[in-house]
Amino acid sequence: MATVSRTDLAFQQCIVPACGATYGVDEVLTACPACGNLLDVEYDWDRLRPPQSFEFFERKWMRRSDPAAFSGVWRFHELLPYAPRESIVTIGEGQTMCSPSDGVGQFVGMNAGRLFLQYEGLNPSGSFKDNGMSAAFTHARMIGAKRAACASTGNTSASLAVYCAVTRLMRGIIFIGTGKISYGKLSQALDYGALTIQIAGDFDDAMARVKEVSGKLGIYLVNSVNPFRLEGQKTIMFRVLESLGWEVPDWIVVPGGNLGNSSAFGKAFAELRRLGLIDRIPRLAVINAAGANTLHELYTNRGLRWNGGRADMAPACRYYDELDRDNRRAHTIASAIEINRPVNLNKCLRALEVCDGVVREVSEQEILDAKAQVGAGGLGCEPASAASVAGTKKLVEEGVIGRDERVVCILTGHQLKDPTATVAYHTTDQKLFNDVLGSRGVSRASYANRSVTVSNRLDEIVQAIDLYG
Ligand code: F0G
Question: Three-state DSSP class for 261?
């Protein structure tokens, strides 16, 4: 047992209780040097004495001319108190909302008023990543980093690039798999001036490389193996609670890729309960795309569990060996979650234990139909985000989620992130449909809103409007 007793108010700690080694927040680590597992940011809550009531955070909104009070992340600074105020980096992230959607609720089979969408597409770079990036960037600034890197399926890179461009505090270096990220995201990274390195491979390859390169060159890594990033992502749950009048919903449903969000959500709820700010924890559903379903395979089919921190990881090792042996790669239209080796697997297992969670996988067809329904409800999202809605539909059909339970689906990224998938779904061009979607096993576009083609003649246009309008 390598437990060190610390006097710091905030510190890093190995997530495995049997190790429990601790490190200062001034250290830059992405794994426990003692045992190689993931790290948490931990706090001495007894001495920090955080607010006893959520109203404390509500009141901050009155002072929103202060950027740290305006930020939907730093408004909750007392619940992620690792950084001095003067180090805080914010570009106005976290102004997101959780709204009821009866249209989507009906689609998934729920009773009216019970389904909510937490729309993280409203963030400055258009995805939830900004919550975590402002937190990691703040830590990077604390330790004086001048360069920051990530591997990405697109959104982390867009987020890192925008923080670098707005603050000019660091040079951003991003690693992406060639042809593996959607144009909306690639265009952001290029426009914001990040050094963009496209490697011949997929996200899993890029992730392995960026770890190697950042270690070798001393570049600050902002992927979600960085425990400070997940501190920022906890605030998504704080804002969900805030939108619901501080009432705890029955379910949180989130897409699973690298499993940072699900891990952060579990930590958020465990801490809120420990601090006495909530008295119960919602259930968590993590939804994989069927073509990138490591968590589903390991958790649902092979019985892998956190087991109070004594997880037997042999099934995971065997599964990864099988992937290598068969040269199996992740493959899904939901490119944001096209990941076979989720770096936060262990933390996610812990979150599933804390939240009595379930894991499901959804097909490409289910993802795209759900995405069209989200769009029709007014808040478009990218394919990966729609996995949460498709997963909810499945869980309602199975009877795991009750029709009258209160469910929050996290819409992780904005609709404009991936126009290719959207246009291909709604198109009348059979070739385009086949190339983009048919090739992935999508056979129908049941909720397509097809454009009407007319010649440039007034009578024909008027006729079309009379007919379809
Ligand atoms: N949804 C979107 C839109 C994402 O961009 C990601 C991850 C996820 C869901 C999965 O979240 O990793 O916390 O389970 N995108 C990363 C990236 C991998 O590089 O942008 P997770």
Answer: helix
Pocket test for ligand 1, best of 129, 199, 359, 417 (most atoms within 8 A of CB): 129
In this predicted model, what pLDDT tens digit does every residue of 89-120 receive, in sequence order?
999 999 999 999 999 999 999 999 999 999 99
Q: Which atom of ligand 1 is nearest to the CA of 385?
A: 1
Residue 219 tokens read as 């570049």
Please state the atom number of ligand 1 nearest to the C-alpha of residue 153: 19
CB burial of 286-310 (b: ≥16 within 10 Å; e: otherwise) equals bbbbbbbbbbbbbbeeeebebeebe
The answer to whether the pTM exceeds 0.90 is yes
3-state secondary structure of 126: coil
Distance (Å) of CA 362 to CA 108, 186, 291, 292: 13, 26, 9, 10
pLDDT-based confidence at residue 5 (cuts at 50, 70, 90): low
Give the DSSP H or E segment for 29. none
Question: CB within 6 Å of ligand 1 — which residues?
Answer: 127, 129, 152-156, 255-261, 336-337, 382, 384-385, 412-413
CA distance 140 to 145: 5
